[in-house]
Amino acid sequence: MSQTCMHSEISRSAKGGADSGPVTFAGAPTAGGIAQPPSTGVSAPGPGAIGSRWDGLDSPERALALEIRDVAHLARATDRLFDRDPFEWIGAGTPAEAVAALGILPPPLATDILDLATRFDDLMKAGGVRIRLALVVTNSCRKIHSDYTDLRLITTYSGPGTQVLPMGAEKAEANLWSMATGWIGLFKGRLFREGHSACLHRSPPAGDLGVRRLVLVIDTPSSAPESALA
Fold first, then answer.
1. Who wins on pLDDT, 57 or 227?
2. How is 14-68 classified by DSSP, letter by letter?
């Protein structure tokens, strides 16, 4: 199913978890034409973020939740997949079934994906998950858009992360903010709940940038038909 760009809003500022303070993105510096968060280190979560927590999604003013993390401990495992030909592996069912359906993965990576899938399944109570793990080298889903889903988990294990449009910003490349590699994003889609805004975002243009990305996407079964990666 193709994705249609649809304008929505993300809260202008955010309060993180216990380790994060409020973050405001007005006047954020830019790097490579992409708006960046203030230079306050890894504690600056992002627009509409909730810090290192997955609660707070009940708030209609938040379209995105971020969990800040470092995936350096997974580098050896992800490097084993990073030099392969581009691929997209899909698994569905219970978290354990979905991870097993992806094939033989380096154990640390399989453990991390199972943990995320289990947490996502517990959060959404949808009776299962659909997982996609892909090595992306093209300009997949480069348009700024919102997803025709309820809630989507996206994390980038290697390469540049998903780019997000802050609240009230014109839908333009110069206004995008980039998630850090390893951070976990919970993106509200257009089917999340009535009265909630979907998160506008896009995939960085890997083909134009000449980069490779190892990306994980987790959906509920009802949101499974969309195939584009972010």
1. 57
2. E--STT---EE-TT--EETTEE---SSGGG---TT--SS-S--TT-TT-SEEEE-
